[in-house]
Amino acid sequence: MHVGPTMYAGPITYTGGTVGLGRNDLVSGEAVALDLPPASLGRRIVSGVIDVAIALVVLIALIWVSAKVGVSLRDGAVLAGAFALSSVLALIVLPTAVETLSRGKSLGHWALGLRTVRDDAGPIGFRHAFTRSLVGVVEIFVFFGVPAIVCAAISRKDKRVGDLVAGTYVIRDRRSLEVAGTAVMPPYLAEWARTADIGVLTDHQAMLIRGFLHQAPSIRDDVLRAALARQLVQTLAPYISPAPPAGADDVDVLNAVAAQRRHREWLRLQRDEELRRRVLR
């Protein structure tokens, strides 16, 4: 029976796990899954302790300077204003400036190899850093970090309250990105793939193919692996003309399609770049 694309909506599952995207995977424009794992709660706590210690040192230093100035002027209003300004500078302005200029790295993040990113994995801006710092004054300094730890412990990406409000989360910046399922063109299918009309696949289909190719070697059941590959090839049938050569292995067909799509995307980017150069001359 022909299985069309509308009949295949969910992830492919098998007894050893799930073939597809993990919950923390992000997808590039070429539908390549990138694993951006969130930082563990332990790392976040250590990083937070470093940031809090630095903020308190800066705050104490500013208060000491303010006290000296206030005493010399003998003006209580100036002294109170200087104390308030010191708190704002140490707890909000400085953390916001550091995270904004470093694109998501506080001093604690630098020490632990972490980085704050947006929920879509893009670099944070001033608004995100300011929101995190502002909320952090309450959840970390006023309530001694208890709301932050509880929230991070129960949230899916170990987010504290400031992350939930700002739309951010913290990743392990020193871990290299894992590209899921780099397809290799089977030589005997190269000519077919080069001349085939491969239509625009949905993001969901492209991601499933990448996920399957990435995890196929770990599926020990040959029959099951072949059945999963056949199901995916059937979903591609309406998008590919002519059909793959008779007798072609389904896993090889998926590799050929993925590799050819990557090659054509690379050529398109090259053409776009050449056009830009000509326009800007």
Description:
The chain has 281 residues and is mainly α. Helices cover 57% and strands 9% of the residues. The strands form four sheets. A two-stranded antiparallel ribbon has the order 1-2. A two-stranded antiparallel ribbon has the order 3-4. Strand 1 and strand 2 (17-19) form a beta hairpin. Helix 2 (76-101) crosses helix 4 (126-142), helix 8 runs antiparallel to helix 9 and helix 9 crosses helix 10 (250-279). The radius of gyration is 26 Å and the shape is elongated. Mean pLDDT is 80; it is low at 1-23, 25-35 and 176-181.
Low-confidence stretches: 1-23, 25-35, 176-181
The shape is elongated
What integer is the average pLDDT? 80
Instruction: Please bin the fraction of helical residues.
Output: 55-70%
Class based on secondary structure composition and strand pairing:
mainly alpha
- Distance from first to last alpha carbon: 56 Å
Number of strands: 8
Secondary-structure element order, N to C? EEEEHHHEHHHEHEHHEH
Overall radius of gyration:
26 Å
Q: What is the makeup of the main sheet?
A: 2 strands, antiparallel
Proportion of residues in extended strands:
5-15%
Numbering strands along the chain, what is their spatial order in the largest sheet?
A: 1-2
Task: Determine the number of helices (DSSP H or I, runs of at least 4 residues).
Answer: 10
Subcellular location: Membrane
Organism: Gordonia jacobaea
Membrane topology: Multi-pass membrane protein
Keywords: Membrane, Transmembrane, Transmembrane helix
